[in-house]
Task: structure prediction
Amino acid sequence: MQGKAVIVTGAFGALGKVVAKAFGDRGAKVALVDKAPAPASLDLPGETLVLGGVDLTKADEARGVVEQVLARFGSLDVLVNVAGGFRWETVAEGDPATWDLLYHLNVVTAANMSRAAIRALSASGAGRIVNVGAGGAVKAAAGMGAYAASKAGVHRLTEALAEELKGRVNVNAVLPSIIDTPQNRADMPKADFGAWVSPQDLAAVILFLASDEARAVTGALVPVNGRV
Result:
């Protein structure tokens, strides 16, 4: 990753921060993008660009991110779409607006950023897009309808982009089970946390898919299940 320019969306969250640090530790220049305001300080190695308050459901703001990255770093090699959201509610008793919300948070953000980045990633010669899907979208459980449907959209987006960009940009997705985050521990206090996927382990798979070693891998949906 030495010298490569990387965008990580959802970069102020539990997973995004770990992914951004993992790239920085390996010598990448990292742009951290999030809808939340930029934190006062981020303990990250290497050259960084911090962009808070960005609404990636808006295509023009996604284009603005890429423009700022190119102005700062001069190129773009990797896009990691971590940004997204989750809601648990049944279909029968839930709010229909949740389906629209999660579609925009999970699918539209990834589509907007990918579309905005395609030209720069194609110019890289080793461009990579890595999306964060979900193991729970392969077979939805009760209360997971809206979330699973939106993450399944991320999977189909990944496959479509991989076909469209074959030979120019490799596009893959990781499909984690339950990620070991403070929020998930608070929501499921009786669970076996040791069976979950650590953000560091998930970041390692993302790094592989972004690397030259994965040059022959595109269109893959990679399960990262831990021991769940």
Observations:
- Residues 85 and 101 are 9 Å apart (CA to CA).
